[in-house]
Amino acid sequence: MDYIKYINDFRLQTNQSFVENIERFYQETETISTFYHGQMVAKEAVSLSKEYHEQLYQAGLLHDISAFIPKSERLLISEKLHIPVLKEEHQVPLLLHQKLSAYIAEKCFQIKDPIILNAIKCHTTLKKNFNNFDLIVFLADKIAWDQPGIPPYLEELNTALKVSYQEAALVYIDYLLSHNLLVAHPWLLAAKKQLTI
Ligand SMILES: [Fe+2]
């Protein structure tokens, strides 16, 4: 598949709802299971917040929209799309899916709202100066994770969630840092630093 051509050629269809267009994208790129994961994350994000429901739902559906680009292609595709790539993302191109998803959300789904795009862009690592919207999408993705079974950190994360989003994010980041992390992304470390102040 020519990934860049697919992205460039994709058009929203006016006879389809916004969600139907997103579902079609996942279908055409043979990643429908990621669409279902996106729906779970979208619902979780909405349930975690009293506001921003429409934007959170959109961010949830689109956060992994780049799943069809294989890990082995992510570096090359990012470079071709002029997406800035950090040293750690060179080492672990899997991490580029958050930036690629934000690119596709804007290019293919006409998302202009920076609050949505920024949250998609840091949904795996969080980042320095995150806001509540970023935190909610980040946490929803960890609660409604894309792997089978119950996340090992879920109980502790849910307990921390009763205190604050920040406490819950710290539980997950600490779990990650103590469990064979492939590479410590600088955005993750910057977020942790701010969470522990
Ligand atoms: Fe996800």
Automatic annotation (TrEMBL):
<dbReference type="InterPro" id="IPR006674">
    <property type="entry name" value="HD_domain"/>
</dbReference>
<dbReference type="Pfam" id="PF01966">
    <property type="entry name" value="HD"/>
</dbReference>
<feature type="domain" description="HD">
    <location>
        <begin position="34"/>
        <end position="146"/>
    </location>
</feature>
<dbReference type="InterPro" id="IPR051094">
    <property type="entry name" value="Diverse_Catalytic_Enzymes"/>
</dbReference>
<dbReference type="GO" id="GO:0008803">
    <property type="term" value="F:bis(5'-nucleosyl)-tetraphosphatase (symmetrical) activity"/>
</dbReference>
<dbReference type="InterPro" id="IPR003607">
    <property type="entry name" value="HD/PDEase_dom"/>
</dbReference>
<dbReference type="GO" id="GO:0000166">
    <property type="term" value="F:nucleotide binding"/>
</dbReference>
<dbReference type="InterPro" id="IPR005249">
    <property type="entry name" value="YqeK"/>
</dbReference>
<protein>
    <recommendedName>
        <fullName>bis(5'-nucleosyl)-tetraphosphatase (symmetrical)</fullName>
        <ecNumber>3.6.1.41</ecNumber>
    </recommendedName>
</protein>
<dbReference type="GO" id="GO:0046872">
    <property type="term" value="F:metal ion binding"/>
</dbReference>
<keyword id="KW-0408">Iron</keyword>
<keyword id="KW-0547">Nucleotide-binding</keyword>
<keyword id="KW-0378">Hydrolase</keyword>
<keyword id="KW-0479">Metal-binding</keyword>
